[in-house]
């Protein structure tokens, strides 16, 4: 059986050129009719593709036409059908973010990697952190904080000195960004079922923005985040190069 493939590409010329070549070799269908969606670009485009395809039955196989390509496979034009047939599937759940801004407006977004809160002015942010209805940190003075999934733990979370989490672990990483008070607080590991709430203290004087996989909301009053197990993102990797192996390898580079 020949796989029906939908080729999607970022706006980068190298990705667009690759898409044209691959369509000429393998044909192309619409994503809703595809057995597999092939995303051509970098990690940012892969995240956008996963969000777009979350309601579709097809899994997503990325080929790197970007910079780092942590979520991508190596690019090749000649053996794609064999690679797709042999690919191994990883299933990940996103974070669901619910937020209210200072004007009372409600916002919702999903994040595959992380939800981050970042100061939006010259002064440090002041955040109160509540986990499952219990205040765990009455005041965190910082540049920001984030909650990361295992799949996103090597991204912004790792740059902020947060831990790398094994794929399949029922854990989320809560990580401070440049914490000032408590100065030595480096974050926490939380069960995947946890509901985390950030309240912005002195929101007008110390404005904060929230970002969920590049969906940004300004003038945040509070944010509530939890894993959404009802949504499954299906990602395909070449054998031996899945997320678990990449997460382990990243810790030895």
TrEMBL record:
The EC number(s) this enzyme carries: 2.7.1.23
Pfam families, A to Z: NAD_kinase, NAD_kinase_C
Top-level class of the enzyme under EC nomenclature: transferase
Annotated catalysed reactions: NAD(+) + ATP = ADP + NADP(+) + H(+)
Membrane keyword on record: no
Gene Ontology MF annotations: NAD+ kinase activity
Signal peptide (from-to): none
Keywords recorded for this protein, A-Z: Kinase, NAD, NADP, Transferase
Record flagged with keyword Cell cycle: no
The name this protein goes by in its record: NAD kinase
Protein's organism: Sedimentitalea todarodis
